[in-house]
Amino acid sequence: MIAKLVNFFGDPQYRARRRQLFVIILAMTLAADFLVRRDHVEGFWQAIPGWGALYGFIACFLIVFVSKFLGHQGKLMRREDYYD
User: Fold this and answer.
1) pLDDT in tens, 19-33
2) 81 lies in a domain?
3) Is 66 inside a domain boundary?
4) Measured at the alpha carbon of residue 60, what is the angle toward residues 2 and 36, in degrees to the nearest 5?
5) Do 49 and 64 touch, CB atoms closer than 8 A?
């Protein structure tokens, strides 16, 4: 069971199926967000359907981008054989 799951996420031949799966999950998440009642929100942006998904995506993208930038441009990343 675990081997099938690892092969599904690691094998390039399943790329199209993975993308379809992720798009379906994203669509279901956004559709479910329209069903949530927003009676007590603290800011106007929290009343926008899909705000949490968009905010999470942007935050994750920025974390990865800033980490890569600091690793490569900030000289924080070392070669693989640095400690050998």
Assistant:
1) 899 899 988 988 888
2) no
3) yes
4) 85
5) no
CB 16 within 8 A of CB 24: no
Q: Is residue 45 part of a domain?
A: yes
Token code pair at residue 13: 């031949």
- Give the range of the structural domain holding residue 29, as residue numbers without chain letter: 2-72
- Report the number of distinct structural domains present in the chain: 1
Contact 28, 50 (CB under 8 A): no
Q: Which tens digits make up the pLDDT trace of 55-80?
A: 988 999 999 999 989 988 887 877 77
Tell me, yes or no, whether 79 lies in a domain: no
CA distance 32 to 75: 43
pTM of the model: 0.59
Residue at 56: amino acid letter: G
Task: Give me the pLDDT at residue 12, please.
Answer: 85
